């Protein structure tokens, strides 16, 4: 088993006033050749946007973009005609494919919106742009792995154009459970949203990240009540990026 540890305070940071963002991997003004991605997981941004502020219309292509609000609500609009609000307890994926313009704003004027924006390289380029949104609150599982992203439109959560599975784990202090990887050649990037946990001898606190690969399974233990995001992704980049 191979691992890499990214403590919370090692992330890139940019505070623009209206946007306070921490970058696990290289993004915008934060560039570190040793922190370009974890396999096909390209971006993990931990964002806080002030009330009424946001990102104006801008382009994307050939990327799977996943948004998960944890406080407040995020307003989304894109060139495919999709317009709506992503609330806490929901998840959205946008497949940029052949090209899409979108904007994201804090839906509320009087409170911050706190969310993760995650980018995953797709298996192939040139897919039709699309957006999908669903509730993950109804399927919440205590002391279990709740699937929120998969490659299959018929499974729980949203689906993306990649052999990737994301799970939320809300564990009580002292609870542990083995995670078995879905596909050979994949790795898992573990990101602690709050609380603390342990994998082997590695203790993980809030906003720490821990990558694991070259293994079939590992055990995750909560050392305090914890909420954790597990992102299983292929470790080999697709041919179009080589």
TrEMBL record:
What InterPro entries does the record tag this protein with? Pirin, Pirin_N_dom, Quercetinase_C, RmlC-like_jellyroll, RmlC_Cupin_sf
Q: Which residues form the Pirin N-terminal domain?
A: 9-120
Pfam families registered for this protein in UniProt = Pirin, Pirin_C_2
**Taking every annotated instance into account, which residue ranges of this chain make up the domain Quercetin 2,3-dioxygenase C-terminal cupin?**
147-233
| Superkingdom, taxonomy of origin | Bacteria
Question: Which family does the similarity line name?
Answer: Belongs to the pirin family.
Q: What is this protein identified as?
A: Redox-sensitive bicupin YhaK (Pirin superfamily)
Question: Species name for this entry?
Answer: Moheibacter stercoris
List the lineage, top down.
Bacteria, Pseudomonadati, Bacteroidota, Flavobacteriia, Flavobacteriales
């Amino acid at each position: 088993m191979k691992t890499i540890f990214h403590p919370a305070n090692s992330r890139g940071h940019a505070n623009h006033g209206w946007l306070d963002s921490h970058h696990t991997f290289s993004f915008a003004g934060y560039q570190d050749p040793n922190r370009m991605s974890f396999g096909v997981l390209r971006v993990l941004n931990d964002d806080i946007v002030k009330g009424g502020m946001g990102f104006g219309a801008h382009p994307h292509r050939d990327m799977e973009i996943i948004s998960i609000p944890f406080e407040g609500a995020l307003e989304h609009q894109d060139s495919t005609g999709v317009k709506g609000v992503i609330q806490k307890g929901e998840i959205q994926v946008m497949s940029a494919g052949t090209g899409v313009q979108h904007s994201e704003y804090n839906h509320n004027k009087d409170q911050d919106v706190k969310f993760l924006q995650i980018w995953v390289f797709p298996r192939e380029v040139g897919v039709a742009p699309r957006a999908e949104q669903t509730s993950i609150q109804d399927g919440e599982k205590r002391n279990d792995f709740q699937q929120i992203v998969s490659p299959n439109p018929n499974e729980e959560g949203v689906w993306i154009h990649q052999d990737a599975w994301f799970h939320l784990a809300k564990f009580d202090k002292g609870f542990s459970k083995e995670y078995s990887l879905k596909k050979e050649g994949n790795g898992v990037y573990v990101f602690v949203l709050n609380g603390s946990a342990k994998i082997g001898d590695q203790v993980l606190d809030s906003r720490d990240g821990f990558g694991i690969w070259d293994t079939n399974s590992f055990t995750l233990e909560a050392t305090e009540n914890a909420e954790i995001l597990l992102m299983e992704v292929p470790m080999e980049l697709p041919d179009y990026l080589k």
